[in-house]
Amino acid sequence: MNTILESLKKNVRSLFAEPPKDQKFGTFGGVFTPNVLTILGVILYLRLGWVVGNAGFIGAVMIIVLAKSVTICTGLSLSSITTNIKIGAGGAYSVISKSLGLEAGGSIGIPFYISQTLSAALYIIGFTEGWIRVFPDHPPLVISTISCLTLLVISYISAHLAIKVQYFIMVIIGLSIFSFLLSPERVVTEVHLLGSFEDAGFWEVFAIFFPAVTGIMAGANMSGDLRDPRRSIPAGTLWAVGITLAVYLSLAYMLSIVASPDELRGNQMIMVDKAFWGPAIIAGIMGATLSSALGSMLGAPRILQALAEQRTIPLHTILAAKSNRNEPRNAIIFTGIIIFVALFVGTLNVLASLITMFFLITYGMLNLVVFIQQSMKIISFRPTFKIPRFVPLMGAVGCGLIMFLINPVFSVIAIVTIVGLYFWLERRGLQTNRGDIRGGMFLVLAERASRIAMKFPRQQVTWKPDLLLPVDDPKVWGGPLLFIRSITHPSGSLFAFTVKEDNVRETEKDLKSLLAPIEEENILVTSTIIEDKDFLHGAKLVIQTLKAGTFKPNILFLTVGSDSGKDHVIQELVSEATRHELGSMILRQHPRVAFGMQNNVNLWLRDRSPNWHLAMLIALQIQSNWDGSINLVTVTPDKSEEWRMYEFLEHLSDEARLPSMTDFHVIVGSFEESLHSAPRADANIFGLSGHLDFDFMRRCTKLTESSCLFVKDSGRESALA
Fold it and tell me: What is the pTM of this model?
């Protein structure tokens, strides 16, 4: 007798004993057991009969298989990606955040955490319904509160204690299922294969049933406590999905042959009444609901702790804390508070519908992550568990369709909520030491788009300003970045470079610092340093090299200063740009007034000149960004030609669809004299001839008292397109 007592004491002590710090779970205890016990939960005992009663046996099979197909695809996707990456704490949150970044992971992880927490409340309500069946006089709220507190204490003490408790519950659930399968009831005279859905439509019934199959994440949520997640998650998840599918189909068939549809719809305890031994079913209900609630209580705080660890949520310092035994106890307490609130305000069917939406969003995103990584065909995605591409695609599309078929309004609200969370998290500027696939994903899209674009010639109708900017010395370059912004915003781009023989790294920093203000304007800015002794030689190499690119500049932007020593360099670069079909712009900035009030632009045109398309396009860009007006100006030495020149300007304005506020000015006299009498403007734009007259460029800023831009077409622009 003493030996037996000592043995019992030893077993009890081992049950509550703290495990070693480095002890983690294997496949059976860490994945398979929590998955199975979460799937075989309250819906199995309390709602499967109602589903069969409304849908009939064939309808119930359709609902079960459809729901399982989503979780099978998700389980396969989860199994595949966990054999490719080192999954951290948080299960699906860890997978999504490692793939699409903390913002995407958080926007999905927060609703996923809520769904797991609400699941615990759902299962406790189910346990309470089973308890009331045995003890009808007991207050439901008291039962719910006591059971919730008990489970919280178990999960608070240790996850190992919770897993050990679940082993006993699994035995009880197995016995209860066999008790119903051995039902002594007579087979009904007529089995209803297709139901009439009297209580609810197909998709409403589906929504209420779907939480029954959502336990596949219970094991993944324990990823941070698994000995080998890469092996345990695929094996434990897929075995759990397969076995529970067989259980649900078997019980659905038994329910259809031992009870009429009216009994199934009207008696939620039908399995108790029809079982070989009713108390076994009641024990199964209580055990299943408690184990499912316990599984959710183990998983949800770990998701919350993982969210907090990455500073994704408020109170992250408190919620990220762990005990010396790796238990997220602050997160457990916070989760318990939310469960208590849900118990006071929720009902079984309402909670089931909410949970369905949250789980579908999470499953859909998980499938999408796997599909994206498969489609990218990157070498880093080489899972040891391979699945066809149609599997995650079916899972993602299926989740989206089912959401909208169940409740379109709530689906839109859920998606808007996730998008809102994403932008909220993006504004917080979350930082992580690990990388993700976002940059690579968009790079792959850009590469594929560029391959398609290369099959088509660049059309004038799609023209936009893509500037090539040589910078002689980033430290002292006083170029007009604000004016460049006015030319390129909103859809243009800037490729800047400098040529340097030494101190390349320092020069690179100076160049990036110089371009930072224009990059902050959301303009695409790229830059590089060319290592060469001669600036002109290096610049020519850049022009020649970029000609072969898909995203190549189309305008060379230069500035002319007071020093005439660099004029020959500008002449050479313009000639090189012309040879490689680039337009050219040379700016002579007024040293005192610069661009004045940034309002009016004078565009100078010559009759029958072929070189005006680029100048007009640039004038339109500047006018749009300055929110100003354009003056079309032309000069004629003959007074009799004045009227014809007005007609020429009006016709050109009409053909080019210039703004209605455009003014026309015909000045009679010599060209240089007309520069004095022209309307005042903040910038004057002129056509550029083949031979560059640098003296005139410098003199022009004095004559117009403004900055002057000299433009030469490449022949590939059209202001009439």
Answer: 0.67
